[in-house]
Amino acid sequence: MVKLRRRLQSLLRPRSARRDGGDQLGYAPRADGQADPGEVVWAWVPFEENDGRGKDRPVLLVGRRGSGSGFSWLGLMLTSKDHDRDAADEARWGRQWMDVGTGAWDRERRPSEVRLDRLIVLEPDAVRREGAALDRATFDRVVRAASALHALE
Model's pTM, two decimal places? Predict the structure, then answer.
């Protein structure tokens, strides 16, 4: 496994850069109605208990796993709940959050946080709609923070 931290440089590569059909990280949002890395999309995200329950929520796409038509999206879920007030409790459970500000992914424009410690793998058909693109500086900050927590194949 290659540490995401070591792959941070690949974020700066063009979207076509790949390594043997494995994980491809990058920032390539396009306002074309299709999901792209760097965009916040909506998808059904299962609860961690994996008991069949879940929640429709925004997810920041950070890259792809696989190549061709057999790829999956790599993402980090967002929430409008403020975890600054319960940061110690969240950390005790291994959950780490980062503020990402507001965006069109939330109709009420509430401030959002991204969960750094839980990498979500989504099938392309699980992504139902495009929310908005995260700005490049915020995207890069999120990936740098998440890189200390994840190893990608």
Answer: 0.81
